[in-house]
Amino acid sequence: MARPRLSEDTRRRLLEVSAAQFLRQGYHGTGIKDLLDRVEIPKGSFYNYFPSKEALGVATIEYTARCTAAALTSAFDGAPDPLSGVRAFFESLLAHFEDNDFTGGCLLANLACELDDSETCRVAISVAYRQWRDGLAGPLAAAQAAGTVRDDVPAEELADTLIEAWEGAVIRMKVDRSAAPLRRCMRLLLDGYLRP
Amino acid sequence: MARPRLSEDTRRRLLEVSAAQFLRQGYHGTGIKDLLDRVEIPKGSFYNYFPSKEALGVATIEYTARCTAAALTSAFDGAPDPLSGVRAFFESLLAHFEDNDFTGGCLLANLACELDDSETCRVAISVAYRQWRDGLAGPLAAAQAAGTVRDDVPAEELADTLIEAWEGAVIRMKVDRSAAPLRRCMRLLLDGYLRP
Q: What's the pTM value of the predicted model, to 2 decimals?
């Protein structure tokens, strides 16, 4: 059989659309046909890009992790110091949620909550959270060295705690349709607990 | 038409089974027929108990809130002081997660993540989180008065933050299949941030 001609652009569009639809309708609520209609490619060609819906799930989780990494880089690039970068990163997430009227939430958390039956997705989400944690732990360690963040707790643990409190606040944001839980998380933890 | 004979016991069993199945398979992944087979009642009689699947969803969320309230009462009844009660409550949740090999997670968070399309479920989850918050804020205020919890932040905000950090840690627990995020949350926040 001739090897099918694959397009990087089509693959990227499939991931963008699956991320949006998984966020809106959940993994099980999203059909492959719906994704293909949106990307405007025939059904048969889907399996040239991904061997299964589960493989698309894993690729979408990895795509989400790359988006988070890009948001971190962008926030730190424009910040005068590491702690300001951490704040800018969370402010950028908040602005994104405001633009979406506090619907959707975090795709990693949504898929983690929804999927107990896919081992490969579970592992991919676990890796994505660790990458996010590492992306924050580095700047937090630099802030510890600069004396702007408490140094009696390892930077990795501070990053884990900040991410988890944020993820819980995102869930409250969704059900309250309000930025208040996110603002409280930043005020009490980022501006409170994390300080020396 | 004669009013159908309803059984409180059947209603309670429907809620127990729906809570377990929603936790295992999600709201959209759970069919009403599956629930009825497990409770062993005919399909027609479901609508005598709940006018719709969405109404069952709301009732299941309220049932979950009552379970949380009962766990709080049980933890505080056996505790020598309010702060010990708060710790006993979270230890009881952790023991439950250990019994289930860190699968499932928190039904409130799972449904909040999954359901963006049901306004009545969204409001029910929001109310359930506020009840949980209030159930912790009272004892935390008592602990503040006793000098065992910091009093520079309102007890309600401490309760919200603790619950949200816990819910985020439960998500990490699920994807890491480990109690470590829950233990870290208790160590850094309950034994750290909350102290005077």
A: 0.96
